[in-house]
Design goal:
Elements: H1 2-5, H2 9-17, E1 28-31, H3 35-38, H4 43-52, E2 61-64, H5 67-77, E3 84-86, H6 104-108, E4 116-121, H7 130-140, E5 149-154, H8 160-172, E6 179-182, H9 187-196, E7 199-202, H10 211-218, E8 223-226, H11 231-235, E9 240-242, H12 247-259, H13 261-275, H14 280-295
Parallel strand pairs: 1-2, 2-3, 4-5, 4-7, 5-6, 7-8, 8-9
Length: about 300
């Protein structure tokens, strides 16, 4: 998702079509995640995953984008720890930042200015756990104090079957008027949407890193996310972390943030400070250091 969602699709396609670089020595391989092994979904993706990861054991050095991915590499492929280097991705602070006024996105995306928004961004594949979020949001909406709160889902579904399941669940729960969808947005508009949201919720089951929570924090939006995979590394103590299988816990976390203004202010402050620790400049510097060490320069 990190590759697909940040405009690197052409690079991804070329590398999957031409893997001759795996024969080069020495070589550095960057591993975003092992989702095709940890959560295999379709046969094609399983086979593609085997192909993509076939060069990992032969790599001189591996850059993992989180400690969680590093642990997966050790556990699944038994790769020596001293060959794996963690380099976190960054966030573009020129785009993803707190803004004084983002109101133009209300009209642009047909959103109600009188509503409060709980925002979620995902491709709706099962590991993104969108269904559990919708169920938790349904529990929240039973409280009349949240009558003005709507769920704002950002991002096109990767597979149409997953969107159909999402819409069917919403229909079964009678939540058609409570859930809004915006499929395609620029990074600038995404930043503005983060800014108008009262809360960002990301209950993913597995992430190599988890860029959306970082973007949300950089925009001054409180974050509720999962307590598994790499997500605790991303949010630190700035976000609320819950069991991604527990509907009640997720609903309670949303309730706390939306009903406690002091808690929200504290989370905003901590989130902004946390996001400052991640930058693409730092990513580039640490990546260069791995290449230099591998080449013994």
């Amino acid at each position: 998702d990190l590759v697909r969602s940040r405009g690197l699709g052409d690079v991804y396609k070329r590398q999957t079509q031409n893997l001759s670089f795996l024969r080069l020595e020495p070589k550095v391989v960057t591993c975003l995640d092992l989702i095709h092994v940890v959560y295999p979904k379709r046969m094609f993706e399983t086979l593609r995953g085997r192909l993509l990861y076939s060069g990992l054991k032969k790599a001189s050095s591996i850059i993992a984008i989180s400690e969680a991915t590093k642990k997966d590499l050790i556990r699944i492929y038994n790769i020596p720890e001293d060959r794996i280097f963690v380099v976190y991705p960054g966030v573009n602070h020129d785009i993803f930042r707190a803004r004084d006024n983002s109101n133009e996105v209300y009209a642009k995306y047909k959103l109600e200015e009188s509503s409060r928004y709980v925002m979620h961004l995902s491709s709706e594949v099962p590991t993104k756990n969108t269904g559990l979020l919708i169920k938790a949001f349904h529990r929240l909406k039973k409280d009349s104090r949240f009558a003005d709160v709507k769920l704002l889902k950002i991002g096109r579904a990767q597979y149409e079957v997953d969107r159909r399941k999402t819409l069917k669940l919403i229909e079964n729960l009678g939540m058609q008027r409570e859930c809004m969808f915006v499929d395609n947005v620029s990074d600038l508009d995404l930043s503005k949407l983060y800014n108008i949201a009262e809360l960002f919720v990301f209950p993913s089951l597995y992430e190599g890193f988890g860029l959306p929570p970082l973007e949300a924090m950089a925009c001054g939006t409180p974050v509720v996310t999962s307590n598994v995979s790499s997500l605790p590394e991303v949010v630190g103590d700035a976000g609320i972390k819950v069991d991604p299988h527990d509907v009640h816990a997720l609903s309670e976390a949303m309730y706390k943030v939306l009903s406690d203004e002091e808690l929200r202010k504290n989370m905003v402050k901590k989130g902004l400070e946390r996001a400052k620790q991640f930058s693409w400049e730092r990513t580039a510097t640490e990546t260069l250091q791995v290449y230099a060490k591998t080449l013994e320069l």
